[in-house]
Fold:
Amino acid sequence: MAIEDLFKIVKERFVAEQPAVPAAESDVEIPQDLLFKCPRCGAVVYNREFTAAMKVCPKCNYHARLTWQERLELTADKDSFQEFDADMRSLNPIGFPKYEDKIAKMQQQCDMNDAIKTGVCTIRGYRTVIGIMDSHFFMASMGSVVGEKIARAFEYATEHGLPVVIFTASGGARMQEGIISLMQMAKTSGAVKRHSDAGGLYISVMTDPTTGGVTASFASLGDVILAEPKVLIGFAGRRVIQDTIRQRLPDDFQSAEFQQECGFVDMIVERGMMRKRISNILKLHGFPKEAYRR
Amino acid sequence: MSNLTACERLELIRHKDRPTVNDYIPAMFTRFMEFHGDRLYGDDAAIIGGIGYLSDTPVTVLAQVKGRNLEENKRSNFAMPHPEGYRKALRLAKQAEKFHRPVICLVDTPGAFCGVEAEQRGQGEAIARNLYEFMTLKTPVISVVLGEGGSGGALAMAVCDELAMLENALYSVISPRGAASILWKDGTKEKEACEVLKITAEDLVSFGVCDKIIAEPTGGAHMSKEQTADNIYEYLVDAVFRLKKADTQQLLEQRYAKFRKIGMFTE
Structure:
């Protein structure tokens, strides 16, 4: 081993062992909803300002997670959304312990029956089938309901000659549904393929975090793949990889920017521009424009 | 049929003498020729691809390679493919489609490899692309899970007209160890997780995922490699014969329907 290599190892170790910047601690109690602390850069901002900025960190431009209601509000034209399969609920296919309880709790917390809302809406006048995954619900993991709703959304779009826009976010397949959840990857990918073979357009919009079985199925299969800045996109979990290679990974590993550089994202789009970008893509593909209200 | 628990089967499929595709391919196919590379990046030794004869029918074989010793395992990365492995499989599947050869996928992997380079080269995209393309591949596709069917890494070679499993093979969305560490924050509770996950061939038949269970010799596949290979061979000859007769359009409708109907929900 050359002597330079020795230093390199020491340097690497030094870099790897440096602790993250510690959060400022204080005895003063701060109401939980007053401040937002960015999970990426650690900046602390007033929640009011953060919300007014569409939940984008003013310091590092991290595009934080939205609820489905917030996403719909930012994306669809006023009153244009008609929901599909609103009452679809998960069962417990493999008899997983306490799965029903967990689902019930999530349903109460998130005002939705499972991790995705699907339906049809207009975006600046362009009629489109839309899917919005909400990571607040069970980390938007994909089980029977997510898979079925996506497959039906694509089939509806194919039948009606409509484009599909899906805002993806997910921790991956829903382990609690066992092999059934894995099969949803095949089911959704098959539905995308049939939509594509029929000439249908599909825009995939990757939001924080798009990982695991969702990255390895419909999220990666868009004709056009957009992503929000700084969001996490990847297949394997960061910790799993770190454990394998026993090295600290760079902060931007598996970011939207990393994925664009590696060739897996067409375009990174700021939240404030997303609606316009999507509608421009729909327009270019020749879809008709309807009157709409914002 | 086997009355072993999932956990006992896990031990069986990890048995050091468990036969691998390196045993099965020479036993089942004649004049097998291996084809290398994905034409995009490289050649992944975790997946063997090639052509040969099954009885007198030309077929394309795609197989995940567990090593029989450390040397072989180092070469094949313990059967954990990189994106170029899945892309090689897709390239050869497309070739098979062009020349109307049935595709036979032999699945035996702990999962797709998790690493920096695998991410850089798009592990997620590579798996997704296989699911997407295999769903409408205009030639019969038959997958056989030989040992471990590890999550998306297995599914990328298991979008098929028929899925068969060796009697003691397991097929799961997550490794039992992974499930245990998420569920109980304790990876050593692998055995408990094994039973909870419902991953045996019988379980998968009950969910409509697995179509056929192939018997292993008493004591497991390693008790007689020849007998196990014979049993798989017999199944494959029959399946290829049946599927080759089917009209292609009908075959694809049935393939989609096979996956389309899997799910449990109320509305």
